Amino acid sequence: MSKIRAAITGVHGYLPDYVLTNDELATIVDTNDEWITSRTGIKTRHILKGDEQGTSVMVVEALKGLLEKTNTPPEDIDLVICATVTGDSIFPDTANIATYKTGMVNAFGFDLNAACSGFLYALTVGAKMVEGGTHKKVIVVGADKMSSIIDYTDRTTCVIFGDGAGAVMLEPTTEPGVGVLDYEHHGDGSGEKYLYLVAGGSRKPATVDSVMAREHFVRQNGRPVFKAAVSGMSDVVKKVMARNDLDADSLDWLVPHQANIRIIQTVSKMVDFPLDKVMVNIQKYGNTTAGTLPLCLWDYESQLKKGDDIILTAFGGGFTWGALYLKWAYDGSGGA
Length: 336
Ligand code: ACO
Hints:
This protein is of the alpha/beta class. The protein has 2 domains: 5-173, Peroxisomal Thiolase, Chain A, domain 1 (3-Layer(aba) Sandwich); 179-327, 3-Layer(aba) Sandwich (Peroxisomal Thiolase, Chain A, domain 1), CATH 3.40.47.10. The protein contains 11 helices and 13 strands. It has helices at 22-25, 33-40, 55-69, 94-101, 118-131, 155-158, 208-212, 222-243, 261-270, 282-285, 292-300; strands spanning 5-14, 18-21, 44-47, 79-83, 108-112, 138-145, 163-173, 179-187, 195-196, 219-220, 253-256, 309-316, 320-327. The chain has a 5-stranded mixed beta sheet with strand order 1-7-6-4-5, sandwiched between helices. A hairpin with a 3-residue loop joins strand 12 (309-316) and strand 13. Helix 3 packs across helix 4 and helix 8 runs parallel beside helix 9 (261-270). The two termini are 23 Å apart. Bound molecules: acetyl coenzyme *A (ACO).
């Protein structure tokens, strides 16, 4: 019997309406469009505004769009994995809120936290559930409302991040060569000190003092994160390419986490892969953490063809990083 693999059969995304420009940021902190563009490549990012609007708002919109596009009744979904670091609350998990609000009455769901590598890890877990033969329709969604943990008085972080969600449908296939074919993931907890939240978890629960000290916002030492991101992603992409006999000609697309255009350009150079086959949309959305990879697939979907060889790679807080190799399963924008 042919091996069951998990194929992506549809992708959809959601960005909130409000667009925060570099010029508006320059009215909030001491920065300017030239600095942000040249150091990060970011021009705009979307922000989810309004009272009590959590990440699930964006997840629900992405899921509804995905169901509609793939002509899938909500009750057919078996599992939803939501990669996020900004769930609506510590518990219950955002995946369950979203399955309830979209009528996925037969699905179970859970959140997965691996910062910017969250979608990649979740895609691997979802693919294994499909390959095991027990789950026929699995949705993997990457979503973050980074604006909820960003300090808009800190110019070193507030220019980088944005809000957004992207989701893919995974289904079984026995077609030779289609679907998720390989992956390699890594973690290094010593990276914690470079990118973290001080308070709000079990180690330092929220207090009046922690709020006054702005300890619920992202803290980052950008330079070591930059260096580790470049070496981590290029190393693992090279390994996955070598293992699967892929080179700059045969690989159709590289989909890197969108953290900084200079990181993307350096990785492309280090793996000797042309930038015109690297998916880039950081200029529009900034770093949406778990959202970047599916939002790239969504933006480039119309250019993808069945059989395209694609490597996704990410690096995030933790440190966490990895790469995943798949063959695309359909042509154009409609889903399989
Ligand atoms: N506007 C103007 N000046 C700024 C700004 C800003 N927004 N931010 C920093 N600066 C200043 C600094 O204060 C510093 O000034 P100084 O020389 O007077 O001290 C100068 O610019 C240079 O600062 P650096 O931090 O050295 O700038 P760098 O070129 O490293 O760029 C950046 C900073 C964009 C943060 C970069 O280091 C980076 O992208 N790092 C990786 C970040 C990343 O990828 N994070 C996400 C990881 S994934 C996750 O899990 C969330």
